[in-house]
Amino acid sequence: MNRIDRAFRRSRDEGRSALVAYLMAGDPDLRTTEALAVACERGGADVLELGVPFSDPIADGPEIQRAGQRALRAGTRPRDVLDLAARLRARTEMPLVLMTYMNPISAMGLATFADRARDAGVDGVIVPDLSLEESGELRSALGARGVDPIPLVAPSTPEDRARAIAAAARGFVYVVARYGTTGVHQDIPTDLGPRLAMLKRMSPLPLAVGFGVSGPDHVRTLAGLGADGIVVGSAIVAHAARDPGAEGVERLVRSLASGLRPSEPTSPALRGSSP
């Protein structure tokens, strides 16, 4: 059982969802990101997702795009993010997941990237611009090194395709809550509960929901809908942009973690799907 498996089993045994906290590596600098990562764990995050800054991030909303641009201007490169992951691994057993795009991986070389991810103690990799049909080589390279390839299932994904994606997954399945890019939204799509139920019938892996989660009420509602994990990115990134102090981020994450135990899915946050 690897670190991702243990994190989700622990949260399940505690009767709650797992919190996946996202940070853009290198925003505003790598030293700050390291401090914020530790703050996220202290605040109650179960898994840390580190964004690798990239110039054309198709899945990222405005807040995370701005964070990526700041990180790029600060000179953050993919190998710097892997070095950061290695430093964090020396300090924590919290699972570390990279969210990156295929261009930086291809530039490094698939085998080299997989080697460096393993050596840094990375537990999983999410690549939002990599289709199932084109993912075999990277999945094999990562899997051979004990790194979980974590796919995304979108709202528009047909059932048969979702089943194939889930079958190829390791670690967990990232369920995209809404159409479009990441970002803070006011509601939870009404079709999300049935989609989660469908995916649970397809796969024994945990389902982590992201894109648009912005506060404890959203977290609580998603827990009530059956999400095994809840990914919060833009809200944390926006807070860190305003105040990069570790104490403030720890308080925010602690607040988010307060919603991890489920409530009834009739929460006011559930008001209809977003375009």
Description:
It is built from twelve helices and nine strands. With 275 residues, the protein is of the alpha/beta class. The protein has a single domain, classed as Alpha-Beta Barrel (TIM Barrel). Strands 5-4-3-2-1-9-8-7-6 form a nine-stranded parallel sheet. α2 packs parallel to α12 and α4 packs parallel to α6.
* Molecular shape: globular
Q: Tell me the strand order in the biggest sheet.
A: 5-4-3-2-1-9-8-7-6
In terms of DSSP E residues, the strand content is: 5-15%
- List how many beta strands DSSP finds: 9
Number of domains: 1
Task: Bin the helical content.
Answer: 40-55%
Number of helices: 12
Distance between the termini: 39 Å
Please outline the helices and strands:
Layout: H1 3-13, E1 18-24, H2 30-43, E2 47-51, H3 62-73, H4 78-89, E3 96-99, H5 102-108, H6 110-120, E4 124-126, H7 136-144, E5 148-150, E6 152-153, H8 159-168, E7 173-176, H9 192-202, E8 207-210, H10 216-224, E9 229-232, H11 234-242, H12 246-257
Parallel strand pairs: 1-2, 1-9, 2-3, 3-4, 4-5, 6-7, 7-8, 8-9
Helix pairs in contact: 2-4, 2-12, 4-6, 5-6, 6-7
What keywords describe this structure?
9 strands; disordered C terminus; 12 helices; alpha/beta
What would you say about this model in short?
By secondary structure, this protein is α/β, with parallel strands linked by helices. It is 46% helix and 13% strand. β1 (18-24), α2 (30-43) and β2 (47-51) form a beta-alpha-beta unit.
